[in-house]
Amino acid sequence: MITTEWTPAERGNNFRTKREIGIFTHNGREYKATGAVIAEKQIVGYVHGAHLTAWRGEIIMKLNQAGFAKGLHGTALHCYNGSFGGYNWYGKGLGEGMVLRLVRGRRV
Fold it and tell me: Which of 36, 44, 48, 103 is the most exposed place for a label (fewest CB within 10 A)?
């Protein structure tokens, strides 16, 4: 079961953070894990085709692949950008099906 909850952001500002919480039960024990997060200065989600999605597949934003960069030990990193909430967002990740963290850029 995966639930989505809204929590106030840390540091006392009034921006609201959307946090996806996954709840799993295994051998009678309950485990929780954070999935997608939408915060004031970063968004974390999963690359699925041309979209950034949450665990359950809800589309957070459309992604544009903007090329490649060299990562640790020569690993190729995919560079992405997109628009959400009136801002441009930028990040690097490992590609399809992987977690991607985007940071906020300038206003659109």
Answer: 103
